[in-house]
Amino acid sequence: MLKQALPQYFTLSKYNIDVLRNHDLKFDNVTLDQILDKKSIRNYFYQIQQEREQTALYKRNEFIFLGRSNVGKSSLLNSIIGKQIAEVSNYPGKTRNLFVFKISKSNYIIDSPGYGFAKGDKKELEDWGSMMQSYLKYTEFLRQAFVLIDSEHGYKETDKMIVDLLESHKRPYTLCFTKSDKIKEYKQLKEQTLLNFKDKQFINQLCLLTSIRDQSGINMLKGIISFQIANNL
């Protein structure tokens, strides 16, 4: 018997999915803009703030991808862009910096280190937390954070850590469940998500089920980014 295809998303409440259908995002000239560590973040955004003050109608949109090590973040980013920009490694937590990619005029995707990395020590975990605190504190341009969760393993304590951090900074975020081709059904996943996020204020009511193997959910994820850019939310 053939495996029944899963949907590309589920919703936590009423959501008008049609708003995403007419948005198409193309990545024709992606460049690496900056590599940031926790010490350089403040200065980076200070320089951007100066540029903003000197430029009429200054616009900037940022989209950051967050997830546990081995959640498939780098592979997902490469699939979205259509070419390899993020390094795919068999060693969890290899990325230790924020990689800022310019995807088009005034629009940026940020690849963050995996959190809860298996080979990291306590100091590295503390450095990760400090770096993310600095980024969320100093950026004024984050339009959407994408929190990646492994469909097979579900929502973990380390995921809750980043969700609580985003909530405390009042930053909007979308849940992206990766490797959805490896699960048979999603009803339990949806039920658990409804339970875990019922009191959250800044979560997108649209949750994505993504897979780089069959490209499920990829275009919808791009649609969210494109919609945000078009509306400069």
Give a verbal description of the structure:
The chain has 233 residues and is α/β, with parallel strands linked by helices. Helices cover 33% and strands 20% of the residues. The chain contains 6 helices and 8 strands; from the N terminus they run ββαβαββαβαβαβα. An 8-stranded mixed β-sheet has the order 1-8-7-6-3-5-4-2, with helices on both faces. β7 (173-178), α5 (187-196) and β8 (206-209) form a beta-alpha-beta unit. α1 packs parallel to α3.
Which oligomerization state do the chains in this entry correspond to?
A: single chain
Q: Major β-sheet, in short? A: 8 strands, mixed
Helix segment count? 6
Strand order of the largest sheet: 1-8-7-6-3-5-4-2
Mean pLDDT comes to 85
Q: Tell me the span between the first and last alpha carbons.
A: 45 Å
* Percentage of residues in DSSP E strands: 15-25%
Class by SSE composition: alpha/beta
Low-confidence segments, ≥5 residues, pLDDT <50?
A: none
Rg calculated over all Cα atoms: 17 Å
Assign a percent range to the helix content: 25-40%
- The shape is globular
DSSP E strands, number: 8
Features:
single chain; 233 residues; alpha/beta; 6 helices; 33% helix
Quick recap of the structure?
This protein is an alpha/beta fold. Helix content is 33%, strand content 20%. It has an 8-stranded mixed sheet with strand order 1-8-7-6-3-5-4-2, sandwiched between helices.
